[in-house]
Amino acid sequence: MFPTMTAPGDPDSIAHIIQVALAPAFLLSALATLLNVFSTRLGRVADKVDALSATLPGANGEARATLDRRLAYLRRRSLLLDLAVVLASLGGVMTGAAVLTLFVGALREGSAASVLFACFGLALICTILAILAFLAEILLAGRGVRLEVERKQDRAG
After folding, report:
1. pLDDT, tens digit only, all 157 positions of the chain
2. What are phi and psi of 141, to 5 degrees?
3. How many CB atoms lie within 10 A of CB 73?
4. What is the pLDDT of residue 47?
5. Which pLDDT belongs to residue 139?
6. Is 31 left (phi over 0), alpha (psi -120 to 50) or beta?
7. Distance of CA 140 to CAs 46, 67, 68, 92, 116, Å?
């Protein structure tokens, strides 16, 4: 897999493997930035839902219909943000899995598993699990926004 690998456990070989495995770090960084943007936007949607929901009980007629349309719009936005979060998170997980596959493949070809390999492999696994945990949390937050919209609309109606 790595033609520069001269001897198992050779520091140059290990360094080369880590360099190749770290190349996707730029993609992971971009995905993390996107996830940050998505979660910030979801927070703004939640704030708008709260603000509109506060005015819903006193609204009637045309004002009520306008508020309902705006809340439905915000609900659609939260669903799209959930989709974006799922796709970006899956992209991050797949990138991490690809790096882990590359790493494990190189480890299989080398006969010595050093502490460096173990630490780096654990770091990749933790990164993948962190992205999955973030995905679960942001989906719960999006679901909470939609439930709040429904609750406010039911109370006002």
Report:
1. 444 444 556 777 777 767 776 777 777 888 889 889 888 988 998 898 889 888 888 888 888 888 888 888 888 888 888 888 888 888 888 887 777 777 777 666 554 445 556 656 666 777 777 778 778 878 888 888 888 778 777 777 6
2. -65, -45
3. 13
4. 92
5. 84
6. alpha
7. 12, 24, 23, 19, 36
* Residue found under tokens 């306008």: 66
Residues with Cβ within 8 Å of residue 75, at least 6 apart in sequence: 145, 146, 149
93 token code pair: 């997980």
Task: State whether the Cα torsion 122-128-134-139 is positive or negative.
Answer: negative
The pair of three-digit structure tokens given for residue 125, joined into one six-digit string: 């696994």
**What is the residue type of 81?**
L
> CB under 8 Å to 45, separation ≥6 — which residues?
74, 77, 78, 81, 145
Q: How far is CA 93 from CA 33, 52, 123, in A?
A: 15, 36, 13
CA atoms within 13 A of residue 21's CA, in its CB half-sphere: 24
